[in-house]
Design brief:
This is PiggyBac transposable element-derived protein 4-like isoform X2. InterPro entries: PGBD. Pfam families: DDE_Tnp_1_7. This protein starts with a helix and ends with a helix. It has twelve helices and eight strands. β4 and β5 form a beta hairpin. α4 packs across α6. Helices cover about 35% and strands about 10% of the residues. The strands form two sheets. Strands 3, 4, 5, 6, 7 and 8 form a six-stranded mixed beta sheet that branches. Among the domains are: about 160 residues, no CATH class; about 120 residues, 2-Layer Sandwich (Nucleotidyltransferase, domain 5). The protein is of the alpha/beta class and about 400 residues long.
């Protein structure tokens, strides 16, 4: 870490606001699998253990009328919370990932002693733990003021070398089927530098709109854009576009993920986001949408948004800068929402991060699990996500009062 100026320069380059964030109620129709909250834990989430003194349970069993959790233990017993969840996974590869995740989380569980009656309708100021992580740039660039050097932190030369290698592999697998294209221009392996030029032209196409991509190489004086033919020939651009590939098709089988085609790129970007910069204590968990109207079995639809069709992405970002710390693309593979939350937050557990999320993600079961892994959460919550009856009654009373006040205003 050179200086505060260096950090500010780099974070400004990386900072990017999240777009197309779905609202709380609209998320109900995004996916059926993620909306299933089956709480199989023994008790509900407690009020913070440092702020409450354990009390003995009542000897009688009339606690159903009080604000108890779903599974109370016997009186005078010390309750140790352990997460027990059912996970439905369709592919073997995803099963291995989630088994590894559960094993890694179980090693870090902090037993929490709690009382099932520690619910309160009164607000209070909690005593929060100190942040145990180190935030800032973990891999500083040689020249912090140079945009190309900063971009290399995320898009390194090894990424373009992978593009070059996989494109050559794909060409060797499909060359017999692409005779017409091969006759127009003899194939030669694409170098990493040539791939950078190729991507630069694609980015420039977004700044200069044309009817179709071939018009960028048009010789018509009214349509010509000299920089394109001067940088790369049209046939070479088409050739690279045709064989641009990210993964070896020969390794694909029935157990492969639905993201197999782009899996190496996703893993590369996630690894870079996790290692280049370490976020501050406050994090935000929400989702974004990549616009797409093509044919995808896991394409989502949200009628309440401007971008109605697209790919749903769970995004964990730093609250201050919007820097993306981790992300996961929804693929409709029967993965529970609690499992998704834990997998996205996994690199940042056990550091007393504060995670802010809306009522689509919040539940008492996930709050309990995160607390066991030294992570605080904050946000609104739906009544059917494990709230005790006393808080449900409180919410109903507030709604009735708001309804009466609204009726009085309408009469006036």
């Amino acid at each position: 870490m050179d200086s505060d100026k260096t950090i500010n320069n780099i974070t400004e380059i990386f900072a990017d606001s999240l777009s197309d964030i779905s609202s709380d109620d609209e998320n109900m129709n995004i996916c059926e699998d993620d909306d299933d909250f089956q709480d199989t834990t023994e008790v509900m989430i407690p009020v913070k253990k440092r702020e409450r003194v354990l009390r003995k349970m009542d000897s009688d069993r009339d606690s159903e009328n009080n604000c108890n959790s779903d599974g109370d233990e016997s009186a005078d017993s010390e309750i140790v919370i352990r997460a027990r969840r059912k996970v439905l996974i369709s592919s073997d590869s995803e099963s291995e990932i989630n088994d590894h995740l559960r094993n890694s989380l179980s090693d870090r569980v902090i037993p929490v002693n709690l009382d099932s009656n520690n619910w309160s309708t009164e607000d209070f100021q909690p005593s929060l733990e100190d942040f145990e992580g180190d935030w800032g740039i973990a891999v500083p660039p040689p020249k912090p003021d140079s945009i190309p050097e900063v971009v290399k932190l995320i898009l390194g030369d090894d990424l373009f070398e992978m593009f070059s290698y996989q494109s050559s592999v794909y060409y060797s697998q499909t060359s017999k089927k692409q005779r017409k294209l091969i006759k127009s221009l003899k194939w030669s392996p694409v170098s990493p530098t040539e791939f950078k030029t190729f991507l630069a032209l694609i980015i420039l196409m977004g700044r200069t709109q044309k009817g179709n991509w071939k018009e960028y190489w048009s010789t018509d004086p009214l349509l010509t854009v000299p920089v394109f033919p001067q940088t790369m020939s049209r046939n070479r651009f088409e050739q690279i576009w045709k064989f641009w590939h990210f993964n070896d098709n020969s390794k694909m089988d029935q157990s492969s993920s639905r993201l197999f085609k782009i899996q190496p790129v996703l893993e590369y970007l996630v690894q870079k986001f996790n290692t280049v910069y370490k976020p501050k204590q406050q994090l935000s968990l929400d989702e974004g949408v990549i616009p797409w109207r093509g044919r995808f079995v896991f394409r989502t639809y949200n009628r309440g948004k401007i971008v109605k069709y697209g790919l749903l992405v769970r995004i964990l970002s730093e609250s201050d800068t919007g820097y993306i710390c981790n992300f996961e693309i929804y693929t409709a593979e029967k993965k529970k929402l609690n499992e998704t939350i834990l997998s996205v937050l996994d690199p940042y557990l056990d550091l007393w991060h504060h995670v802010y999320q809306d009522n689509y993600y919040n539940s008492t079961s996930i709050a309990k699990t995160l607390l066991e892994h030294k992570t605080r959460m904050c946000g609104t919550i739906r009544q059917n996500r494990g709230l005790p009856q006393c808080l449900k009654d409180e919410a109903c009373g507030l709604k009735k009062e708001q309804g009466r006040n609204l009726g009085i205003l309408e009469k006036k």
